[in-house]
Model the fold of this input.
Amino acid sequence: MSSRRVLKVAEAIREVVGMAILVDIKDPRVRDVTVTFVEVSADLRQAKVHVSVMGDEKKQQLSLIGLQNSAGFLQQKIGNRLDTRYIPRITFVLDQGIKNAMAVTRILNEVLPKNPSETDADFYDEAADVAEEGAEET
Done:
């Protein structure tokens, strides 16, 4: 059960952190990072920022370390934006959603036929042949 306020806080955190990563953070480890979504606890004290990082496993881990090191700076930016009693403590989590989607797409490309129009034409030709044979028997 997510209240409207929690959702609004999560969206504000996503906007602030996303813009700060693009504009303000000068850490060379934090590159090619996209904030996908934010989960905020019901009491607004904890926030999990899900990020997607382009690159290999080593680059992803370096980016997470860089983001975690800049968490205090980002919390200060969030505090300037939000008018709440507590500034949410942020932690960063690597989002594997894009990686999983690419794997599913690759598997589907291997399984599904390359040219669907030719396969459909073959299917309809076979169906027509079966229908003609059934009509000749009657």
Remarks:
- The longest helix spans residues 116-137.
- The mean pLDDT is 85.
